[in-house]
Amino acid sequence: PKLGRFRDLLARVVAGEAGVRGERDRAGMELEKLETDAGMRIPHAQGGVAKAFAEWQRGIPRDETVFAYHLAEPESLAWAVTPRGLEMKKLAGRGELRRRIEEFQRSVLEGKGSSTGNSLTTQLFGEFSYPYRTNPFWTVVIDDTVGALAMSSLPQLENARQYLVESHTVRWLAAAHFLGSRGGAEWRKEALAVADPVYNDADERLGRGVGERGTLQLNRLPGTAQEVKLGFGALAAREWRTSLATGMEATGERLREGAAKNPDVLHIGTHFSLDRERPELLAISLSSVRRPGSVG
Prior knowledge:
The protein is of the alpha/beta class. The chain is built from eight helices and twelve strands.
């Protein structure tokens, strides 16, 4: 019956009938889920691949959702996985998604409002069921297209006046198998942020006799401190141990010490500088004003 219904909807779309595309897409997703479930019941599907996936899935913390994407033409696929289930849906093709992401990036850089951010949040995350999209921790498995997205600028699903990262802790991974190295360990709930360093002599936070002044003169990034206060305030409300280094405390020494403790969340809100001799590398630009005896 479901296959017959899908074919009927498909014929109506081809005939140009308005208002049935959404129903057709939902019917197609139901069929794909049936095919996936049936495939997992085939004896060969119970072999190494399926067992490895089940083991990997059990290692996901209970308050985390893993989002993964396969971008192709004419349509793409997205998955949301938790320890309790898996959900799949269709997305626009790679080219269309790239166009939307580039449009959103331009609007962010130019400081202009754009509805593209709302549509990207909805398409990439918002169409999944409530238990998947409301987990506080998200891991997003990226490729070159999704990886170019300015995630910190995406609006929330429920409130477009707030950012997505104010309600979720989001991290990026190049491949989902990296999650397997955790062995199912829970989050330790430790977070470190280094943001809003002192970059130039005009910074109002400077005083006389503060120490050695660096040669790097960059514009201040005051918004990064506000971003950290909002995000880490939400983490602290969930009983996380948070450490913030801003201003003259945003130094290489503080970053190295904190990173050595392997925090669950490491947030860096700074400028990045190109290495002219090795242009494939970036340097994290930290406070150019150092206290006596400190290491930059």
